[in-house]
Protein: LPPG--Fo 2-phospho-L-lactate transferase
Amino acid sequence: MRITALAGGIGGARFLRGLLDHVHADPALRESQITIIGNTGDDITLFGLRVCPDLDTLMYTIGDGIEESQGWGRRNDTRTVQGELAAYGGQPQWFGLGDLDFATHIVRSQWLGQGLTLSEVTGRLAQRWGLAQRGVTLLPMSDEPVETHVVVDDQEAGEGATQAIHFQQWWVGMGAGVPARAFHAIGIDRARPAPGVLEAIRTADVVLLPPSNPVVSIGIVLSVPGVRDALRGTSAPVVAVSPIVGGAPVRGHADACLAALGLPTTPEAVAGLYADFLDGWLVAPGEEHRVGGGVRLRAVPLLMRERESAARLAGDALSLGVELRAERA
Ligand code: GDP
Ligand code: CA
Structure:
């Protein structure tokens, strides 16, 4: 089975680790090849180092190096370097960078500086985490830098004034505490899909959209020129999982992101963002809202409390994809 997934960080990574647990437990699926197209709109340069939070969360989670308690960063990491940077007055301090994690950003920045593309660098980093041995290929959505910026009110500049800040400053620095007026993916007009991205969508047996943030994770991947058309054109069924349960995101600030688009925090609104290519849609039991356009709806438990429930959820998504594929054949 060739499975292709679009993903952000924590929600995407937990779902995809569940997918791996699911396929590895089934002899008929064990040889599956999983290609993950990761969001790079969260990327940021800090202390001269290129940091790719979503790619790293995916890599550490699948490679079994993630700090489970926070969902990002290296397990049992320490903050010696960050403490020293603070002692010098180094900024910013609001973005957590562990000592082990620093090594990833240092070597990534070195390789990028030597002229390797982000795909090549990501491939090298993934070797250390044994992703290929697990049947996983991790691709950045694009090799061109794209950075999501957020338009917020600029209180100091006066009534009605706005300013654009980096996504991480809004999300991590401010805890999304001020309303987002709009999101802009800076660099997206020059971005091309990274090598292998469109092929992975076109040649997949099933395409999965984990319950990643529909606006600033999946939405940014979808805005890379060519990606949306590939999803519309692929013969593979596209199955997505709602990140919204009971009118709220399970984790994070997807509600604030949907509000910036003028949308309510509902599974229907999220499905609407995927309407032109969506074939299957998983919602929580009791939330079988009507979704138009011949989308096959299925209600299953959506909470990924531990690895087992994540594996069950991923298994449910894959089964729906396989079912839809069999009906087409
Ligand atoms: P980020 O880049 O680290 O913010 O992670 P993602 O974009 O991949 O995922 C964030 C989304 O995952 C949020 O909108 C959450 O609502 C969703 N999410 C997190 N945990 C769960 C869960 O257990 N079940 C479901 N259905 N969604 C979840
Ligand atoms: Ca992210």
In short: Residues 307-328 form the longest helix (22 residues). The mean pLDDT is 97.
